Sequence to fold (152 residues):
Amino acid sequence: MEFSDIASVSGKGTLFKVIQPTRTGVILESLDEHKKKMVATMHNKVSILSEISIYTTDTEGAVPLEDVMRKIHKEFDGDTDLDKNSSPEELKAFLKFVLPDYDEGRVYVSDIKKVVSWYGQLVKQAPDALKEKKEEKKASKKATKKEEEEGE
Fold:
């Protein structure tokens, strides 16, 4: 499963797998063990995870959520030791560690709570989404090899 197949619905506590678009919305299935299906219409605020970014203060201005989630997974391997009840200071320190140049003025504690919650759900229910893509691995290996050759 990829980030483009996973959605969040405002007001719902869980993530959903996108099953199929309809004329008036989209059919979703919860990623949890209940596998409840729902039809999200234009009245629901549905966000596809691959389209979400986190504001930064660098020249790019934002980093895709997918990249942030993979970095969290690389650093913490499934256990951030945080949840929605963690203190605001802990949550901010966590995101600062993972994404040092995140925009503290535009990224709220509630946003960080969502990131932590979604990460926990992905680890349990869609761990394959957090794995580095094969194309990315090949590209990074080529870049590393090229850097080594230039350094010689």
Q: What stands out?
A: The chain has two domains: 3-49, 53-130. Helices lie at 65-76, 88-98, 109-125, 134-151. Strands lie at 6-9, 15-21, 25-30, 37-41, 46-48, 53-55, 62-64. The first strand starts at residue 6 and ends at 9.
